[in-house]
Design brief:
Rossmann fold; Subtilisin-like protease SBT1.3; Glucose Oxidase, domain 1; about 25% strand; seven-stranded mixed beta sheet; about 575 residues; 14 helices; disordered N terminus; 27 strands; alpha/beta; seven-stranded parallel beta sheet; glycoprotein; serine protease; about 20% helix; globular; secreted
Length: about 575
């Protein structure tokens, strides 16, 4: 299929199928056509962070950062849509929508005009490219409307500019007030992601509408691999948006710690990596030899282990140099006779973390210790398991296995400690955060900065369960998620605050305001560390260090790059 996207600011030809390349090339001579692209499938890169970032005094309830907003900045979010019933999207006390806004509130399955308000000022859906490749959307299984069935979009929108909500928590964890970075600003949701994928034809159409509608800041956590600037449709349409005064931020991706794992590298886009903050959900692993290890978990069911009793455990591994599928607890590899009544050690690899726990639970295991491998290092990501599961770092995992293999009578128990603040050191760069180098232009560091991305609590779509497992029938209004798609909306919201404070600034002035006010020391006054190697990391890992929103509001240096500067860069 060959088709033309005719927008207010850009005409692009998208073709699907290499056999149509000749036909698409003929269309290149049409007046107004900027470029021709093969349609590409993209992938999505999920209460404490406002306080951790200095936007809210730890004991304050007056939401002083809300006063930083002028209530006239609009943030556009390209994602899976929005769950409009969430209290994060209430518009209490907000002024009328600014007159310059030209967006729309599109309706569809389970979504009406009444779901838009002075907070959520507009919603749109884009699916023509998707349906051309995948086929018609099955409306029995998916909302063909702005409503979010995945949860990713709701989480991101709330993180950008969600209204304050008291008593937010996930099953009792992280209880407190949750809100977005810019709670006084407005949001527009553009749904481009569907069950079968998301394509650049829909993304280009959406960003063209973003510009035409009057959005000031654009968030997207989509990545489809790195290609030349002039062959990357997302890069090109983002350039167009930048020219029209829209600040664009993208997530770095979750393919770290492998080198060259970035998926967005364009210099006019702010690329955001991820790190931890000073809150965790701790569990003590108490060994039969009296030693103790610390891990994390979000388990919350009735079944718990007695801390007064020690339990036998098992680690299914062979003497072969190859990876034993039993050691990573893959479905169909474990013997229930061996697991029943025991704590099972599983290595983190291949299958989803919560799925491993469900495998162990279904075979009679009473608990699971998930051990990181070299790829994850000391990064601890908490999950809402259906079994008593604790995740520990690589080094602790090695000690644990050594103790297990040294004694046939080795035992352990798990003691859940709940939510803990003041964790040190923090921040620490997440192992999953995508890394250097920027192969297109080695001398331009990417990502630009790092922001909290691990164990973030915020609003959730009630169409999906917190663990994403079908067997889990719990519904929650909030969830705790990790990924650079959680760090990116932090930056989009902070950019909205800066834009609100300095409405005359261009996107290329807002960007250096964020970048030149960053810091590099953690809360132990040492250089930020990398969770994958437990060592100080370099600018290639974190770009220009960790964001400081308060300093960014009043920076000492702003370098306003003009579009012509970028043209000259591209020409050389």
């Amino acid at each position: 299929m060959v088709w033309k996207l005719t927008g207010k600011y850009l005409d692009v030809i998208i073709f699907q199928g290499l056999q149509l390349e000749g036909e698409a090339t003929k269309l290149k001579v049409e007046k107004g056509v900027v470029a021709i692209f093969l349609d590409t499938k993209y992938e999505l890169h999920t209460t404490r962070s406002p306080i951790f970032l200095g936007l809210e005094p730890a004991k304050s309830t007056n939401m002083w950062s809300e006063k930083l907003a002028g209530h006239d900045v609009i943030v556009g979010v390209l994602d899976t849509g929005i769950w409009p019933e969430s209290e994060s999207f209430k518009d209490v006390g907000m002024r009328p929508v600014p007159a310059y806004w030209e967006g729309a509130c599109e309706i569809g399955t389970s979504f009406t005009k009444s779901h838009c308000n002075k907070k959520v000022v507009g919603v749109r859906v884009f699916y023509h490219g998707y349906e051309a490749v995948v086929g018609r959307i099955n409306e029995q299984k998916e909302y063909k409307s702005p409503r979010d069935q995945d949860r990713h979009g709701t989480h991101a929108v709330a993180m950008v500019g969600g209204s304050p909500m008291h008593g937010a928590n996930l099953l009792g964890y992280a209880n407190g007030i949750t809100r977005g970075m810019a709670p006084g600003e407005r949001i527009a949701a553009y749904k481009v992601c569907w069950v079968g994928g998301y394509f650049n034809s829909d993304i280009v159409s959406a960003i063209d509408k973003v510009v035409a509608d009057g959005v000031n800041v654009l968030y997207t956590s989509l990545g489809g691999g790195v290609s030349s600037y002039y062959r990357d449709s997302l890069s090109m349409i983002a350039f167009e948006a930048m020219e029209r005064c829209v600040f664009v931020s993208c997530s770095a991706g979750n393919a770290g710690p492998d080198p060259a794992s970035l998926t967005n590298v364009s210099p006019w886009i702010t690329i955001v990596g991820g790190n931890t903050m000073d809150r965790d959900f701790l569990v003590d692993v108490r060994l039969g030899n009296g030693k103790k290890m610390i891990g994390v978990s979000l388990y919350k069911w009735k079944n718990v282990l007695s801390i007064e009793k020690q339990y036998p455990w098992v680690y299914m591994v062979s003497n072969s140099s190859r990876v034993d599928p039993r050691s990573i607890c893959l479905e169909g590899t474990l013997d229930p006779k061996v697991l029943s009544g025991k704590i099972v050690i599983c290595d983190r690899s291949l299958s989803p973390r919560v799925q491993k726990g469900d495998v162990v639970r279904s075979l009679g295991g009473v608990g699971m210790i998930l051990t990181n491998t070299e790829a994850n290092g000391e990064e601890l990501v908490a999950d809402s398991h259906l079994l008593l599961v604790v995740e520990i770092g690589e080094q602790e995992g090695k000690k644990l296995k050594s103790y297990l293999l040294s004694s046939k009578s080795s035992t352990a128990t798990l003691a859940f400690k709940g939510t803990r603040l003041g964790i040190k050191p923090s921040p620490v760069v997440a192992a999953f955060s995508s890394r250097r180098p920027n192969f297109l232009t080695l001398e331009i560091l990417k990502p630009n900065l790092v922001v909290p991305a691990v164990n973030i609590l915020v609003a959730w779509s009630e169409a999906i369960r917190p663990s994403s497992l079908k067997i889990n029938n719990r519904k929650v209004k909030f969830n705790i998620v990790s990924g650079t798609s959680m760090s990116c909306p932090h930056v989009s919201g902070i950019a909205a605050l800066v834009k609100s404070r300095h409405p005359e600034w261009s996107p290329t002035a807002v960007k250096p305001a964020l970048m030149t006010t960053t810091y590099v020391l953690d809360n132990t006054k040492k250089t930020l560390r990398d969770a994958s190697i437990v060592k100080p990391f370099s600018p290639y890992d974190h770009g220009l260090r960790h964001i400081d929103p308060i300093r960014a509001l009043d920076p000492s240096l702003v370098y306003d790059i003009m579009p012509q500067d970028y043209f000259e860069f591209l020409c050389t």
